[in-house]
Amino acid sequence: MNEIDSHINIPLAVVELTKKYDRFVALAPATFSLLSGEIAILSGPNGSGKTTLLSCISGLVRPSEGTVTVGGFDLDRDEVEARRRLVYVPDVPRFYLELTAWEHLRFIALANQADGNFEERAEALLRTFGLWESRNLFPHHFSRGMRLKLGLVMAFIRPFSVLLLDEPTSALDEEGMEILAAEIRRMREQGTAVLLSTHSPDFGDALADRRLLIRQGVLEVQ
Ligand SMILES: Nc1ncnc2c1ncn2[C@@H]1O[C@H](COP(=O)(O)OP(=O)(O)OP(=O)(O)O)[C@@H](O)[C@H]1O
């Protein structure tokens, strides 16, 4: 394997990623990479920088310095290609007021050219997460847990090689956590790299191939 191939085979590479708000350092230079099929659990106290790290990697928040490379594509220079390979589920997913749950899925699938077999895949995912009966409702009428589940289904309806999840367990019941853990294990088998923040030690222990710990913006890779 040459140098370029080995680089492309690393789904996620983060180098010296830094975020400052004025003089406050929310994320000190952070460097790590994830291999294909690797699950990394990100933990740390409230306000330590977990969401900041995930949102900088996802491209939602612009870092002050550093690079993010997804499947060999630089998030800054090749944004479209990098974003095609990466999906981010925030702890509080946002929805369009005008669209039902089903319409959200169709919209995401179309936008990502992932409409092959759409109806079958959407039904299977909605059933898995217990949202099939609610598919024609508007997500702003959903409970917090249902919203998170729809956020997950919206992410999983299209292809990706890197999955970022911000505290998915905070809104899920016991059964929801088991369903999510099973989905994540299935993705690991398919080679997806997963970075997941959680305050739940049990959930993290059940899935972790690697641990990332963040304290006061300083990332420690274990
Ligand atoms: N837009 C912003 N402007 C200024 N400071 C911010 C901004 N966003 C985040 N911060 C600060 O950055 C720090 C890290 O916040 P972050 O949301 O990343 O923490 P977290 O580890 O995800 O916390 P929690 O576990 O409570 O969700 C906090 O001190 C927060 O106040």
Structure report:
This is ABC-2 type transport system ATP-binding protein. It comes from Pelolinea submarina. The strands form two sheets. The protein has a six-stranded mixed β-sheet with strand order 6-7-8-3-9-10, sandwiched between helices. A four-stranded antiparallel β-sheet has the order 2-1-4-5. The chain has a domain at 12-96 and 160-221: Rossmann fold (3-Layer(aba) Sandwich). Residues 1-6 have low confidence and may be disordered. With 222 residues, the protein is an alpha/beta fold. It has helices spanning 3-8, 50-58, 79-84, 101-111, 118-128, 144-156, 174-189, 201-207; strands spanning 12-21, 24-34, 39-43, 65-70, 73-74, 86-89, 162-166, 193-197, 210-215, 218-221. The structure holds adenosine-5'-triphosphate. Adenosine-5'-triphosphate (ATP) binds at residues 21, 26, 44, 46-52.
Order of helices and strands: HEEEHEEHEHHHEHEHEE
Low-confidence stretches: 1-6
The span between the termini is: 27 Å
Strand content: 25-35%
Total helices: the number is: 8
Keywords: ATP-binding, Nucleotide-binding, Transport
GO molecular function: ATP binding; ATP hydrolysis activity
InterPro entries: AAA+_ATPase, ABC_transporter-like_ATP-bd, ABC_Transporter_VariousFunc, P-loop_NTPase
Protein name: ABC-2 type transport system ATP-binding protein
Write the topology of this structure.
Elements: H1 3-8, E1 12-21, E2 24-34, E3 39-43, H2 50-58, E4 65-70, E5 73-74, H3 79-84, E6 86-89, H4 101-111, H5 118-128, H6 144-156, E7 162-166, H7 174-189, E8 193-197, H8 201-207, E9 210-215, E10 218-221
Parallel strand pairs: 3-8, 3-9, 6-7, 7-8
Antiparallel strand pairs: 1-2, 1-4, 4-5, 9-10
